[in-house]
Amino acid sequence: MVSALGVAVVGFGWMGRVHTQAYLRLPHHFPGLSLRPRLVAVADEVPGRAEEAAARYGFATAARDWREIAADPRVRAVSIAAPNHLHREIGTAMAEAGKHIWIEKPVGLTAEDARAVAEAAAGAGVQGTVGFNYRNAPAVAAARELIATGEIGAVTHVRVRLFSDYAAHPEAALTWRYERERGGSGVLGDLASHGVDLARFLLGEIESLAADTARFVPERARPTGATAGHARAAGGELGPVENEDYVSCLLRFSSGARGVLEACRVSVGEQNNYGFEIHGTKGAVFWDFRRMGELGVSRGTAYQDQSVTTVYVGPGHGEYAAFQPGSANSMGYDDLKVIEAYHFLRSIEEGTAYGATLEDAVRSAAVLDAMARSAERGTWASPA
Length: 384
Fold this sequence. Notes:
This protein has helices at residues 14-29, 49-57, 67-70, 87-96, 111-124, 138-148, 180-183, 187-203, 333-350, 358-377; strands at residues 3-10, 35-43, 61-63, 77-80, 100-103, 128-130, 155-163, 206-214, 219-221, 238-240, 246-253, 258-264, 273-280, 284-288, 294-298, 309-312. The chain is of the alpha/beta class. It folds into 2 domains: 3-133, 3-Layer(aba) Sandwich (Rossmann fold), CATH 3.40.50; 134-331 and 356-377, Dihydrodipicolinate Reductase, domain 2 (2-Layer Sandwich), CATH 3.30.360. Helix 4 packs parallel to helix 5 (111-124) and helix 5 (111-124) packs antiparallel against helix 10. It is globular. Residues 6-132 form the Gfo/Idh/MocA-like oxidoreductase N-terminal domain. InterPro entries: Gfo/Idh/MocA-like_OxRdtase_N, Gfo/Idh/MocA_oxidrdct_glycsds, GFO_IDH_MocA-like_dom, NAD(P)-bd_dom_sf. GO terms for molecular function: nucleotide binding; oxidoreductase activity. Keywords: Oxidoreductase.
């Protein structure tokens, strides 16, 4: 029997729109779900933005204050796509109001913030899904299976990269993303958090690390109005960039494997160059987000001069079959968020966590905090 689940979205920039569209697509890709999302309310503090979203997507109610959603009995589940500094306040309030939460990473500014949201959700008995979308790629699921079954032997070392040019232009507006109080640790929380989640998802826990960070664009112009995404501003008052543009990090895993994680938001010539290279005692596996449906695999008994085969993922890998009928048909970024929405609603439906959880967010944030400590002190650090 199918029943409606009242959902709301808090924060309607680009990510709020992606969440909304994912809800609307769920019945098409996952018709077996007994819960069907119903768009009840949307909130955004920018004047007119919530009303525009309601008119475009069919939300029943629009508001400027997210507290109206917390108090709305029609809402049973909430997407939180607001800026990082609001994650803790909104996340704990929604959980304490008895609402399941789908919250974007990194879930606050620190591990303490993420832990507060996780504890509020656990205390209220609600489900919490986190926006670590890259682990949802069917090729990543296939890589995880290859590693778990020993196809490449014992993992020896990994390289995870997340290079982007979204902040490379010197006229990129000085939005909340560049302020420590509202945006936290910059590229650490924005991109490196995804890298940490991928590393943990594929290889297990990170035991210790040594990190270095840098700020390459020290000043940016303040925007004169509301912004969404990565807007530009020219000629405005200059202000300081307070958080990191770049991080590189050596990793030691509990398994004994070693790793390198590198992330940068000002990489000219790089557009969403995200991926990993994982080597084992018998083979290797490679993935590039820009060729999301392909997996480079080397396995066998040759050890030297062993070839790499391109595997096109298809039905049987992750949730691929919900989108395409045969291998090598393309999927896109938004499809990964549909899978995330599916995990969220399935968690609510069954009362069991699926996909990335708030505990994953806590563990990821602890690694990011350790990176910041390591970079500041110039020493190795361990996640608390």
